[in-house]
Write a structure and sequence with these properties.
Layout (H helix, E strand, L loop, with lengths): L1 H21 L8 E4 L5 E4 L6 E3 L4 H8 L7 E3 L4 H4 L1 H10 L18 H7 L3 E5 L6 H9 L4 E4 L5 H16 L2 H23 L8 E5 L10 E3 L5 H6 L3 E2 L9 E3 L2 H7 L3 E6 L17 H12 L8 H4 L3 E5 L8 H12 L9 H11 L10 E4 L3
Amino acid sequence: MQHYLRLKATLAIGIFALFSALTPLTVAAAQEVTDLRGRTVSVPDTINTIAIDDGRFLLVLALIDPDPVSRLAAWPNDINRLGDAFYQRMADMFPAMKQLPIVSSSAESFDMESMLAADPDVAVVSLSRGPNDAQVAILEASGIPVVFIDFFIDPFKHQRPSLELLARLTGNEQQAHDYLALRDEHLAYISKRLDAHQDEPKPKVFMEAHAGITQDCCFSPGNGGVGDYIEFIGGHNIGADVLTRASGKLNLEYIIASDPDVYIATGGPALAKTDGLVLGGDYTEREAQTALTKVASRQGIAQLSAVSNGRVHGLAHQLLNSPLDIIAVEVLAKWVHPQLFADLEPAATLDLINERFLAVPYIGTGWVDLPPL
């Protein structure tokens, strides 16, 4: 089998070189799409299968497709990114999940052979990593169009176009349209209320991303990316004052000197192995609170006013890395402006999404609060 795959890859490279020398290769297709790199990509009019390089795309597919597994030619089997609980629910509802061919994850070096062997109608890959330009050219010369999407580099800005693109590739435009209308409605409600209070001071917010993933402190959103959520809900992101990129590390002394009003830690199932903040479908509220207490009790963090004033919170990072971000926005708004947004009910929003959209419901502890330590 390995010999066959290497031969297929070699032939693909040869075909690409031949057609490049003679004439541009024309893919039999009846539609064009624009991906998140701004590339115009020709794709088949009828798309039966796609391959993905990030298991978290399954959560997005579950939002718009009643059978999200049926479209998959292959996936990276990166269960740790989904969490065991969500994966098991997915596999129980759609047993074909366990028989899917495996391709490389966006967290790894791109593997040409496995993608060629999967032979999807379209390869849907991550903007953050994915194949390089030469590998894209070889795949497309082999008849596999490559489309880049993103829910992670700039989640606030890229949610809509990435969801619309994935919906178009899978024939779920109406479901995506309906969901995005709901998302727009909820975001507009928050924005309008904040506009009426725009002259009020913005509470200082320190968001520690992937809290506890390492022993030293502290990863934080900077300018753009996840930091845009803090700006949108009327908070002052202390990371944006010193980080020029979308994320980076803050010095503990700087955090202490800034003395933020609100401390928000993000985490997920993958942080269990580093004794960090665990949240999501695998964990109860009590387990998440225990993990958050440990994170907030570290030297330096424990001395912050936010901790002594009971403004310590934990958020599942997965809610920021998918179109479920409207739940995260509501949660963040309540944490940063508790009086202004006392009427928001993120749990009710999640219930509505589970009922109307998600083929595999999001169950578990997506966010958690701590009393004063």
